[in-house]
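Example record used in the benchmark description.
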Amino acid sequence: MLERTSLVTLIGIADPANWTAISNNLENGYPSNLAMQHFVVPDLLPESGELTESSSESEQGRLITYTIRVRLPRESTLFKTFQKKNAIVCLELLNGERYLIGNRDHPMKMEYTRGSGMTISDTNDTEITLTGSYPL
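Model output (structure tokens):
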């Protein structure tokens, strides 16, 4: 099993229903400025986002699994926009790598956790986790 973790500097999240418009406007496999209009780009808490890639064997063959974790300010409503929905994600990493993960047929699954903010030591933020597995 191979695993790698990288720091996320930008994330855009789109509804898979917009896949045709997105896929028709890619430049080198990444959304062009025109395609980016279909993505919601939230403000991230500094140095809080990470992409983990891991490969594994399954009955269907070799898979690569992407797990993205980002923290957003508590007042962010992104989790409400994509609640009970799947997503297509575009990412930029600290090292300059760019990814487009998911499509209409194989979107990423989104979950969230909100901090309570009950004490001074609480983070008082919203953590979003996106996961998806794809054949290599």
